Amino acid sequence: MSFLRNKTLHIHPAQNLKGTIRPPASKSYSARAVLAAALAPGRSRIDNVAPSHNVRAMIDACAGLGAEIESDEPGRLVLSGTRRWRDGVTVDPGNSGIVLRLLMGATAVRRRTTFVTPYAQSLGRRGNSEMVDALRTLGVCVTTADDEGRLPVTLDGSDIHGGDVAVNSRRSSQFLSGLLYLGGLLDEPLTVTVPDELKAPAPVLTTLSVLRDAGIQVETSHDLTRYAVTRGTGFQPGHHQVGSDPASTAALLALAAAVDSDVDVEHNGLEELDGVLDHLRRAGVALDAGTSTIHVRGGGVITPVDFDGAKAPDAVLPLAALAAHADGTSRFHNIEHIRYKECDRISDFRQELLNAGIESEERHDELIVHGSPEGVPGNVTVDSHYDHAVVMAMSLVALRSRSGLTINEPQYVAQTYPGFFEHLQRIGGTVTA
Amino acid sequence: MVLVHPAVDGLGGYARIPHSKPHMQRSILLGLLANTPSVVLNPAWSSEARSLFEAAQRLGMTVADQTAHQVSFCGVGRSIQVPGTALESIGSAFNLRTMAAVAALARGDTILEGNASMLARPVRDYLGFITELGGDVEDLSTSRNLRIRVRGSRRLGGTAHIDTRHSSQVLTSLLLVAPLAEDPVRINCSQGRGVGQGYVDLTVAMMRERGAWVESTESGFVVRPGMYRSGVHEIASDFTALSYLAGTVATAESGHVTIRDYIPSQLGPEREFLHVLRQLGIRTTHDPATHTLLIERVEPTSRHVEIDARNIPTVVPTLAAMAPFVEPRVTVHHAAHVNNHKCRRVDMMLEQLRHMGCSIAPTYTADGEVDGFGTPSGRQEPVGGVTAESHGDHRIFMSLATAALGARLSTAINGAEHLHASFPDYFTVLERVGADFDAARTPDGVLSPAR
Question: Which residues does the entry assign to the active site, renumbered to this chain (chain A) (predicted)?
Fold first, then answer.
């Protein structure tokens, strides 16, 4: 907690990391589970809910919209949901795209819900035109700040109906997920098609999993381009058990791999991390993956390996930071969609790599990292760009550097992993204000 | 002076009212003490709020965007900057007290200054909590200016004692900074429920909304170290301003008013006041989707309405103005503390209402102190036609104007120049709902209170 109070932190080089560490619960799954429970009339329980600020934004929004939410013990939420959410509510999605897009779907049946974010330079710059177009097709009256569908956005679903709707998903799958939640609330069937391409299918599979657990029946085509939500199924209360956070898990694995280490990463199930363990092994990292623990022995030579970012979008930045210490060039492809996150995770991240002394290139859909095994000299300041992924990735660069790095605005790591710096210290890292 | 004419043709239409100054002040401070961005919707820019906002910027807050409808800024959390020159508080005790508390978080000395009028008030006397928690305070005042030096500490925490008998502002100041202390802060209050409990409740509610851990104890509060989350602060409507519009619906011959951009505060006093209105025969209907509040006259729910004024002190003058014009018999209890405000508000209202011809009488405690007032049942028809004095009090002025709308003859009221304190557009709003009065207009057509 105390590290998050600071506007700058210095991450010192690490000689050795040793110990056991457990990443937080998945914010992706937690946010979806909170929303499903908040829409289900009756009592639901969520165990191992993420402490992330993004999930807190979802909890606060659902409470403001009419759900009763309590925490009877750490990591557990008890929710009493309702189908009759309040009208006329102003919703603050924090700096979370998934919270915003899911709630745009779930509130589209209400009268006059307005979304406003304090993060004008981050979430406020992200367009929502795909979602806006789809909602308008379904009869929702939508007003937005501009043609890109940026916030503030106001929805009025007085005349909403079901039917067929298309949603472009190249930039983000979050719009599709939001529409699937909406389908569970409509009195008529809803069919959603993806006319372009689904860049990141893993989060949609998480959505489908949570919806299925909440009693929403969705028929899905094999290629994940067509979804039919059955009429009137309605959200049902239930019990959700959340696994480990993919972004945080990937960051810890990469951190431990980057320096001399003997670290056990404990987890509650890996989600949205397809291909990450294989990638690390091919990069030369010694990994033993058990059912609930991954043992990492880091510090060896990193081999440059290419990575398909569509498999695990949240793992791209930590793996790219690790690749900055490989003996050669690594390519991360199929990653256009990570340009539309808290920051442009290709261009903005490259800027910070460059500030730290790491050479890289970019294509529209690709990040190319030129590694250097000796690490960077350090003793420079890098910026977080409001992005937890940038904070964790640049922390890795700092640990492997000769003088460490100062990170501006490191508090944004709390979007996903509020205890990141404390955990890093616990296994031997040094962080100072 | 303004001449208010009887609203014999009734009133009707749409109106907008100011937003809440206490919410605005706390939103600025909570935004400063968070280290992530915040947005304030419907900002309430009183001169006090502007001064506080400027001071917050000198302590490190950065403003990203500002329009009439919202202001976006980013605070500094624990990294409070030391301003190079003194912070001015333009005679606002709230600003001086809260800024002194914030300065206790800074690494260095902060000078705070107030004007001569503050020397006569007990502003300096209650800042000992800063020393108790590990900071330091030194009084550098001269005979002409109040001047205080606060030395911050990186390690604040411990037990502080607050005298809550005279003001809630010191308690609010300490509460707001306490989550950023390094150690838990235990606050012992001089008495259980001091004055201004509603303001303290507001402070605590807003702190909790932003993630602070605050727990009430028998003797006060315990606050754990933590941090504030940023967020969207939607400033609630000022329910005291609302009371004047509700009052016009009661006193005018007939009519209904719809408040636009109405944001309920969710706090107890507002709900309590709306409940009292309903008992008196004034129904309010909130449509959250359109952000409107319809105020209309209906059958009262009781023949005798007894009102406990402990939690609704700011609307007691309005209730006095309305009471002679509603059907039920009205008795207001526990309003003695309202006589401790800007002027002796209960005494002044009763005196002026009787001067206008209303039948309204004080009620007394067993000790012989004024406790409230009462009116007989049945709508009265006071003559009016007099000059009423507001004694420099904006709330008295608007309450008297409310009553004047129900009088038989036009009534002059002195003191409109003080309206800027809470409701600068009062005349414009009154005109929009059809009230008839004589007031000066500025060259650009704006109604001006001064004549």
Answer: 314 (proton acceptor)
